[in-house]
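Chapter review: from sequence to fold.
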Amino acid sequence: MAFSPFRRSASAAGSQRLYRLVDRQCAPHPVLDDHFESMDAAWEAALSWWEEQACAVEQPIEIGIEVSTPRGDWRTLRYPGGWPGLMH
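The token string follows.
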């Protein structure tokens, strides 16, 4: 198993969940790679960035959301591209 600085901080944080945005390959998003305290905060950042890129919000957004697990892994909550931008 590879060393992950996130694993240690997730364990120290206890049950606090963090959220992150992923690209269409479900890898950490190359521009929006950050941790968010809620799914809503992550989605707001994704939607704002998507709109700035002059993309139509009616099109599926190729950004997904993952949540941290107590073991420090990530679990996908929303897959990229499956839902239009204005849906929450």
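Two observations follow directly from the output. Residues 1-13 have pLDDT under 50 and may be disordered. The two ends are 35 Å apart (CA to CA).
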